[in-house]
Amino acid sequence: MTMCCAVRRVMMCFMGGGRNILIGGEGADTFRVNDSNQGVDTVEDFEVGSDMVQVLSENELTFDDIFLTQEDSVAIIEAGDATIHLQGVDVDDLREDDFILI
């Protein structure tokens, strides 16, 4: 497990194949993942309407390529081989403008 903490606006975690915990800093954060990462990244403090999830892809991903599901109090995002868990977030609160697809 890797713990990553943001001290600036962009939180990057490219450690594939493991369970990574991402914690943002004060204010708006962008949590950046690569869609080819295998494993689960967990964001512990995602703020809907303030924070963003950025997915880097070699393919041209659109919002329709991202699968959103809910498990208990965790919004689950699947993009390519990457899985992102947003603790304490209701998937119904997520909108297309919460994502940056590159």
Automatic annotation (TrEMBL):
<dbReference type="InterPro" id="IPR011049">
    <property type="entry name" value="Serralysin-like_metalloprot_C"/>
</dbReference>
<protein>
    <submittedName>
        <fullName>Uncharacterized protein</fullName>
    </submittedName>
</protein>
